[in-house]
Specification:
Length: about 270
């Protein structure tokens, strides 16, 4: 199967899945349900993939970022159709803030790595020169991040219980949680999945570590919520873990076409060999 056909089928698969989960969510209030888990996981996976394309795609930067913004607008329209019809404005506002922030921050981080000293880039299929992998971090970084976020979330619960008493104040705390806790959790999972699926090392050794850690990291956001029951912990763990799984599966399709994430040439690109 040709690389173009693989990518085309991947795109069609994402499009069909997006339409299906949107129709399942249409007019429903499905908080903490399996359908809502699949819906939110796919939305964040799509946003993350748009961010990766915006930073690492082979097209011109202006075209890449324009495509990323159009993709985010497409997700916003689907979100509006599904959530506002069901009168679930909370989910709509959450996704309206979280999705573009997540995608843009991922794109900015990867763009900085691409055009900075690291010269991170995707190696073209057939590239025969010696390759090195500059995008490295350890599990210790993941666990340190988890610990920091857990401390911040605990402070947030304390502020909610002892400082904030009205709904307006709680809305401010909730927005802070989105920016300071939830989005960073998605970002660190996204970067770990990129490293595991697209690096020079074998994914079969990396993904069995990264994916379970993503499910564990999903337990962190509910710590911010006062009196979060086991269903809420299960919901967040499944959502972040499933988002990582969808992203990994999509990147493995790209990997099968011959692309690898490596240290680039001085101009920040890799040229295919003759």
């Amino acid at each position: 199967m040709s690389p173009k056909l693989k990518i085309g089928l991947l795109f069609i698969g994402h499009f069909i899945a997006q339409v299906v989960v949107t129709l399942m969510e249409f007019g429903q209030d499905l908080r903490l349900s399996p359908t809502a888990t699949a819906y939110l996981s796919l939305f964040f996976a799509e946003a993350g993939l748009f961010g990766i394309w915006g930073a690492l795609g082979p097209a011109r930067p202006t075209w890449r970022f324009a495509t990323m913004l159009m993709g985010l607008l497409y997700l916003a329209v689907l979100n509006a159709v599904a959530e506002t019809t069901g009168h679930d404005i909370g989910n709509f506002v959450f996704l309206l803030i979280a999705l573009p922030t997540f995608a843009i921050v991922v794109a900015v981080i990867l763009t900085r790595l691409r055009y900075g000293r690291r010269r991170l880039c995707l190696a073209s299929p057939g590239y025969t020169k010696s390759l090195s992998e500059s995008f490295q971090f350890s599990l210790r970084h993941l666990f340190v991040f988890t610990t920091v976020v857990a401390i911040v979330s605990a402070l947030g619960r304390f502020v909610k219980a002892h400082v904030v008493g009205d709904s307006v104040g709680w809305n401010v705390v909730f927005l802070t949680a989105i920016v300071g806790i939830i989005i960073p959790a998605f970002i660190v999972v996204e970067l770990a999945v990129i490293w595991a699926a697209m690096g020079i090392g074998r994914p079969v050794r990396r993904l069995p570590v990264v994916l379970p850690v993503s499910f564990v990291l999903g337990l962190v956001p509910p710590l911010f919520l006062e009196q979060a029951g086991w269903r809420r912990y299960l919901f967040w763990s499944a959502m972040i873990g499933l988002q990582a799984t969808i992203t990994a599966a999509s990147l493995l399709v790209v990997r099968s076409c011959g692309w690898r994430l490596v240290r680039g040439e001085p101009d920040g690109t890799q040229e295919a060999s003759p």
